[in-house]
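does this look right to u?? arginine version
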Amino acid sequence: TTIYLKDYTPFGYLVDSVHLTFDLAAHATRVTSRIAFRPNPEASDKTFFLHGEDLKLIRASIDGADITPEITDKGMTVVTPDAPFIWEAEVEIDPGNNTALEGLYMSNGMYCTQCEAEGFRKITFYPDRPDVMSTFTVRINGDLPVLLSNGNPSGKGEGWAEWTDPWPKPAYLFALVAGELIAHPGQFTTMSGRDVELNLWVRPGDEGKCDFGMEALRKSMKWDEDVYGREYDLDVFNIVAVDDFNMGAMENKGLNIFNSSAVLASPETSTDANFERIEAIIAHEYFHNWTGNRITCRDWFQLCLKEGLTVFRDAQFTSDIRSAPVKRIEDAIDLCARQFPEDNGPLSHPVRPESFQEINNFYTATVYEKGAEIIGMLKRLVGDEAYSKALDLYFLRHDGQACTIEDWIKVFEDTTDRDLSQFKRWYSQSGTPRVTVSEDWNDGTYTLTLAQHTEETPGQSEKLPQVIPVAVGLLGQNGDEVRATEVLELTEAEQSFQFTGLAAKPVASILRDFSAPVILEHDHTDAERAFLLAHDTDPFNRWQAGRSLAQDTLLRMILEDATPGADYLDGVLAVLRDGELDPAYRALMLGLPSQSELAAALFDRGETPDPMAIWTSVETLRQATAQHVQDLLPRLHSETLIEAPYSPDADQAGKRSLGNAALALTSRLDGAAMAAEQYAAAGNMTQQLSALSCLLRAGKGEAELSTFYVQWQHDRLVMDKWFALQVGMASPATTADVARTLTEHADFNWKNPNRFRAVMGALAMNHAGFHRADGAGYALLADWLIKLDPVNPQTTARMCSAFQTWKRYDADRQDLIRAQLTRIAETPDLSRDTTEMVSRILNA
Ligand code: ARG
Ligand code: ZN
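got this back:
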C-alpha cells in the first residue's frame, strides 16, 4: 500500500498523558500502558485506530471495562466513548528475537530501542504518528543496574527506575535502555544558569573511548546557545553507545542512542575522519532537541523539515569549529557522490516526497543533504540577518508543534516580505538542475548568460524553473579580483547578467562556495581552469577548478587515449608547493573524482562507461602525478611527523591528511617501502590505517594484515575497518573473491549492520571490482541481500541502492544486474522495505 501526502488528516483524538510500565524479560517483556485520550475538536474523522505490530495482546480496557478488539497485523480499531477516556493495555513482546533492530531489541545483553520512524508500534498499541504528542512517564522493572528512559529521573529503587518527560513528544522519540553500562559523566551549565548532568553510557571495556564524545556534546550545547539562542531543557542528557544499530544515531528526547561507531573514539582506534564524523553526529543529534523534538514534523513527508535543517546546523557547527572551506568541499564531494546519483536515477524523489510505501526508505541523501542545501540557499538569498530573524520566529511561533514545510517557508515570508512560492519548488521537484553558462565580452561589458534545465525524473516529466542562487566573482587577467562575489538569482529558464565598466575580459568564477546543489556546465578550457586553480580567491571554486581539470583530463584519457596533460600536473604541483595553503586544503586538492562519478560524467556525454577503462585512467593519472611531484613528497610526508601529543583537531588532522596523501603517491614509486615503515612506527589509527591501505594497494601487506588482526581482534569497530579495507583496496579482478572469502571468516557476524556494511558496502563502493564483467560482484551482493532481508529489512533495503546506477552501463552488465534484481524481487516473503526499493530501481 502506498501512502500519500495529499491524504493527510489529523488523528481523531488527542493524548493528554502516557504511562508505560516495562517488565523486562529477554523473550517475554510485558508492556503495560495507561493512556488518557480525548476527542480532537479539529478532526472530523473519529476512527480510533491504534497501530500495533508483532504484539501479543494480554488484555485491554477502556475506562476500566475490558474489551476484546479485533487485531490485524497493522493494529486495531476500537469503538470509543465520545468523551475523554482512559485506555489501558498489556502486551508481550520478544526483544531477544528482534533482529530487525526496530522497536525494543537486544544488543550484547543490553535492551535498547529505535522508534523512528514507526518502531513504537512494535512496543505497544498507540497512534504511532508524529503529530500525536504527549508527555510520557515510564517505569522500568528489571534486574539490570542501569535503567534509562526519556526526560528526568523521577524515582528509583532496587530493580526499578521511573522517568518523567515533561515535554510533549511524538512516540518516535521514545527510548528505553537497560543494561550493565558504565557512565562517563560530564556537566554543562546552560546560559540561564541551569545545571545539566551529562552521561555517556558504554559497555565495560569502552570507558577509554568517551572523552572526545563528551567534549563534542559540551561544545554543541554551547554553540547552539551562542548561535541560535537555544538552551537545553531537561536536568539530564544521556547518550548510549550500542553496537547493533541500523543507522548512525537517534535524537530520542534526553536519551540519544548512538551506533557505537558514531560516538566511541580514541586515537589508537579511530581515524581523524572518524573523529570529525563523530563530532558532527553528536552535534546533529543534540541540535535535534530544538529542530526535531521541540518542533517536530506533522507527518513523515515533512522529514526534511527536521533533517535538512539539522544537517545544515551541524554543518555550520563544523565550519565554525574547524575550517569552513574544508567542510564545504567535503560536503560538496559527499553530495556529488551520494545525492547526485540518487537524484538522477530511478530512486529520484523530491526533498519532500509525495508518496511512499516504507518511510524508512526515505532517510536519504536527498532528504538530508539536499534538504540542508535548500536551507543554505535560503540563507544566502535572504541574508544572514533575515535568516536569524526567521529562525527566531520559527522557534517562537512553532514551539511544541508538529509542522510542515509550509510553516517553515511562512516564517521566511513573514520576516522578509519575499514571495517564496517559486523557491518552494526545491521541495517538490526532483532531479538535479543543470546550469549551462555562456559568455559575451563587448566593449567593457561582460555578459553572463545562465540557462537551467532539469531532466525528467520518475513521476515528473515536466520541470519548471527553480530559484537558483549563483554566487559569481570576476577575476582580471593578472589574477586580481575585479568584482567581488555577488549572488545572482537565476529564476527563469534563461537569463543574462551584465557587468559593466571592465578594463579587460574577465575570467568568471561561477557557483562560488557551491551556492546551489546543481551541476554546472561550463566549457572552460584547460588553461582557464588552470588559471582559476592558481588564482581564484574563492577557496571552494579554486578547489573545484582543480577537480574539473582532473575530470576533463581523465575523460580525455578514457575517450581519446590522451596522456595526462601539463595543465593538471603543473597546477597540482604549484598547489602542493604553496606552503601558505592549509595542509587539509592541499590534501583535498590531490583528490580525484570517484570512479563512479566518472562513470556518471561519461554517461552524461552519451558514452557507455567501461569500469576497467575508468580504473586504468585513474591509476595512470595517479602514477603520473606521483612522478611529477616526486621531489616534494618526502617533505609533504614529513607533515605527519607531529611532535605534539596526538589530537584530532583540524590542524593536526589536516597535516596528517596531507602527509598520508603524499604517502599514497610515494607508494607508487617506492613499492610501499615508506608505508611499511610508517605502519611499523604508527602510534595512532590514522597513521596505521593509511599505511596499511598503501601496502594493500601495492599488492603487499599480507603480514601486516595478520598482525593488525591479532592486535585488534577484540575491538569490533577496528575489525570493521579491517574487513572494509581489504575489500576496498582489492584489485578489480579480485574484489568479489576477497569479499566472498571474508564472508566465510569467523568474525563475519553478518547480523551486525556495521559488519555487514563493512564487507558489502565496501564491495559496492569498489567501482571496478563491483562491476566485474562476469557479474560476480552483483551476484555476491544479491546473495547476501536475500539472506539478510528476513533478518533485517531496513539494512537490506538501504543497500539495494548499490544497483541504482545500473542503466548507465553496457547491455551485458545491465542484463546481469537485472537478473539479480529480479531474483531479489522474486524471493518469497520479501520485506516491504526491499520490495519497494527493488521495484523502484527496476521499473523507473
Ligand atoms: N533521526 C535520525 C537522525 O537523523 C535518523 C534515524 C533514522 N532511523 C530510521 N530507522 N529510519 O539523526
Ligand atoms: Zn537527523
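The mean pLDDT is 98. idk if thats expected tbh
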